[in-house]
Each structure stands twice: as C-alpha cells, then as structure tokens.
Amino acid sequence: MRWTRFLIVLGTGVVITSFVALAQQRSFISCPIVRDTKTVPCFLAEYNGELYYLGIQQDITSDFHPPQLKHEVLVEGRIASDPGAPRVCGGIPLHPVSISVLKEVNLACNTLLPAEPGIDAPAARRGPGPSSHRDDATNAPREPLVGRHEFTVLYSFNDDYLEYAGNLVVTEAAAYAKRVGASSVKVSGYRATTLLSNGDRLVEKTGLAEKRAQNIATLLRGLGISHLIVESLADPEPGDGQNDPSRRRVTILVTP
C-alpha cells in the first residue's frame, strides 16, 4: 500500500511506467536447476522462493547458452508473461534474459529434477541435431547498411569470452568496413555495474574493458582491417537493474 499511495500523490505516467518495469525485472545470483523432459533439458533458477524459466538446451547458434552446474549464475531478465499465464517447464519465463556463469566453483549447485507428466519443454526453433547456421527466422532479409554505423558486441558478466553471436557481429563489422572503404574504424571497450534486485551492486573487474577492446581489435586485424583506433573506458558503466547486460560491451564504429 505504501507504494500505491506514493504513486497516486507523485505519480505521472513516467513514474508509474518506471515502477512497473522495475517490478517486472529480476536480477539475482542463484544456482541453476536442470529439469529433464521427454525432449530436451530445461534450465531454471530460484529466487525468493519462486522458480524462473531460463531456456532449453540447444546448439551454439541459440541466443540462450545453458549455464553450468557446480557454478552459480547471474540471471538478469524481465518477466515475460501476464500474471496467471502458464508456466514454462514449471517456471515463470524471463525474456529477454541474460545468463552469466560465475567462475567460482559451488558444489552445491547440482540440482537435477526428473521429468514429470504435464511438464514439457517448449519447441526448439530448429529440429534436433547439430547445426552450423541459424534458422530462417533469424536470417530474415534487412535493408543494407549505409553511412556511419556502430556495431555492438555483448558479453557475459566479468568475462571477455566472445560468444557465437559476438563473432557474427565482428565479422559483419569487418565486411562492412571493407565494403565502404572505411576511413575510420574505432573500437571502444566498456565494463559495467549490475544492480541486483536485492539492492546489491556487482562491478566488473578492473582492466576488463581494455582486454575486451584489444581482443576485438585483434580479430578485426585478422579479418584485414588495419589502422584501428582502440580505446577503453576505465570507469565502470552505472547499473540501473534494467539495461545492465547491454552495457557490458565493445562497440565498433565504422565511418566511411
């Protein structure tokens, strides 16, 4: 009731929208939980006594990369369904969701749930078996790039490992720079802060922004792009509990 009275007295559309957005946001550290099903495993995480659905087992081309058991994970996502909507694999779905595996080993993170009647994994976007390319839905045609363009590579928390999607971005940036005969290619690295739902703040380690930028610059040089401008921001980006995964990044600014 305290929040209701506060919003009635001070509320504008902006304030109410912001409060609702924060209420739907979840950022927490938890042990991952694997639930078996008759098709593929589902991955869940528990926070404040509630189960949240993260994703299913697929290949490296998927946007979701399953977390590892025996490690805690940082879960950052938004409740994707209306109250009362069906659960997925027994958990409330989060979308979009970012999963970062923490490096420290935690042997207690080893929960495996058996398959249960009536709890099924959602259908995968492609059929079973290995795949080296994305499905047609992710390869939809788009307008060709023109002019000055910035490409963004995203990272897991406290990590400089480049995922499959990040490699695609770097390759696309290099191809565009060659196509337009770029006069300038600037690589900028960042590290960030994550605001957890309990109010705690996690800050990525010092030096990570520079390492990310230098790694991307090395890849671009290997793809034939020279005369790069490489920079990094030493101070961490602030966290707001909503857009924190988007701040763990390297940008590649291509100027024709």
What's this entry about, in short?
With 256 residues, the chain is α+β, with helices and mostly antiparallel strands. Helices cover 20% and strands 31% of the residues.
Written account of the structure:
By secondary structure, the protein is an alpha+beta fold. It folds into two domains: 24-113, Beta Barrel (OB fold (Dihydrolipoamide Acetyltransferase, E2P)); 146-255, 2-Layer Sandwich (60s Ribosomal Protein L30, Chain: A), CATH 3.30.1330.60. The chain has four helices and 13 strands. The chain has helices at residues 2-10, 13-24, 164-179, 208-222; strands at residues 25-30, 32-35, 42-47, 50-56, 71-79, 92-105, 111-113, 149-154, 184-189, 193-195, 201-203, 228-232, 249-255. The strands form three sheets. It has a seven-stranded mixed sheet with strand order 1-5-6-4-3-2-7. The protein has a four-stranded mixed sheet with strand order 8-13-9-12, with helices on one face. β2 and β3 (42-47) form a beta hairpin. The longest helix has 16 residues, at 164-179. The model is unreliable at 1-20 (pLDDT under 50).
